[in-house]
From TrEMBL, chains A, B:
InterPro entries: Aminotrans_IV, Aminotransferase-like, BCAT-like_C, BCAT-like_N, Class-IV_PLP-Dep_Aminotrnsfr
Matching Pfam families: Aminotran_4
Annotated source species: Marinobacter manganoxydans MnI7-9
Similarity-based family: Belongs to the class-IV pyridoxal-phosphate-dependent aminotransferase family.
Highest taxon above the source species: Bacteria
Name this protein carries in UniProt: Aminodeoxychorismate lyase
Length: 272, 272
């Protein structure tokens, strides 16, 4: 189990390891009234990736908290929905970096308004100056170690929706808060999960849906030339809150905008 | 300036970015009554590295807090001393990863007992199974993004004092909480600051002292063979709280133990 904290009742204990070392992980779930987009996948990812960090939590306990959170918060928001955030940390204390055996995790639950939704006609993005370092033992985990994304997000501005971060070899990996999906003439391409800082739940869902429909999907490194070259038939940013965001320009280069993805798939179908 | 929080009065706000993203940094200072070991260097590092993250703080404001903290906490500890911890975060809120302009940082101040001191006859260490990823924009910064160190520290046990982490090229970089200093026949060797996750204040102090004494010091990559080979005349772990820790065995291999460093230099001289 875990100790449960509601953000509107106060914060976590001062010696929480999430604060001390970023020793934990989080999920940000788009809610419509009392139901969540891709809710099962969010909970499954948190349970699985907590396990990779050695933090034990059960899906059932998390699901129960989501029900309580929906009852507590849904009435405070109107219209398009709201955001439910779950922050799970290893717990309080321990000697320095070393976790004490059998620590009880802390779970902080908070709610916030939906952010502004992207322009379905396409958004402008740029390449980030901040490189992305992905440690294989942490690849894909939406952990609380996110300074690289914070520094890259400081490059955003009113006319810049996202910046794309590259690894030390120069391959494009992901945006600060989005995964990449590229349309080429022979199918769809996305960087492999093992290379990602955060493996998004919308990414996994749409790859499965595309394959179910017989589309060809490759998980392989994406070079700058793949995006700027003539075989790029559309670049999408994927985020479970924001949906499918077509990229209209990247670093000032126009890209073909293909609304197809958003017209084929609607993540709001997955409300549960 | 910053908002000041005392850990013994409660934690940080629930929307603090240190918790959300590890968006901040910390210092851990060995105190003897009301004075600190290498205190100036700790404060200078925090100011400089906060600046690298875009968090503004003044040395004078931090120094004032240390005086208040010493008065508040010193009477609660006896004997060898105590630990003063400063945790500085970018502040509360912002939209997602993107910091709001002009955010006021939060500073959390806490005190704890001194940990057990190492055996000056030498300690046993091992190689960590967790690789270390150092992003050049974060190199050396004692940030709150420390999951790699947490996972490596989980490998420690009652008979294992430290594990040494290597980069993806296999070079030895540092321990979970210590920097490395190797004695070879032609002088001292330590991995370069640009390769480090955390550039320790004791490391910098001892490199300067060695050079002042005319000793030869090289900052260059350290391979496993440098440590296990015949030209290793001693390996030291450096930590401003623990001092100079001679390594007696590494992964079961005996190393020559040279107490020289601890007999030449005494960080307690630097109390201020």
């Amino acid at each position: 189990m875990f100790r449960l904290f509601w953000a509107d009742d106060g914060g976590l204990p001062a010696n929480d390891r999430g604060l001390a070392y970023g020793d934990g992980l989080f999920e940000t779930i788009r809610m419509v009234e009392q139901k969540g987009v891709l809710l099962s996948r969010h909970l499954e990812r948190m349970v699985r990736d907590a396990g990779r960090l050695g933090i034990e939590v059960s899906r059932r306990d998390l699901a129960n908290v989501c029900v309580q959170a929906a009852q507590r918060f849904a009435g405070r928001f109107r219209g398009e929905g709201w955001i439910l955030k779950l922050t799970l940390t290893r717990g309080s204390g321990g000697r320095g970096y070393r976790p004490a055996p059998g620590m009880e995790p802390n779970l902080l639950v908070s709610a916030s308004p939906l952010p502004p939704m992207p322009d379905i006609a396409g958004e402008a993005v740029d390449f980030s100056k901040v490189p992305l370092s992905v440690n294989p033992v942490l690849a894909g985990i939406k952990s609380l170690n996110r300074i690289e994304q914070v520094l890259a997000a400081a490059e955003l501005g009113p006319s810049l929706f996202e910046v794309i971060m590259a690894d030390h070899g120069g391959n494009l990996v992901e945006g600060t808060r989005t995964n990449l999906l590229l349309r080429q003439s022979d199918g769809w391409v996305t960087p492999p999960a093992s290379s990602l800082a955060v493996a998004g739940v919308l990414r996994q869902w749409v790859l499965e849906r595309l394959r179910q429909q017989g589309e060809r999907v490759s998980e392989r490194p994406v070079a700058v030339d793949d995006v700027l070259g003539p075989d790029c038939h559309g670049l999408f940013l994927l985020n479970s809150v924001l949906g499918f965001v077509p990229v209209r320009t990247i670093a000032g280069h126009d890209l073909p905008v293909d609304g197809g993805l958003a017209t084929i798939f609607n993540p709001l179908e997955t409300l549960e």
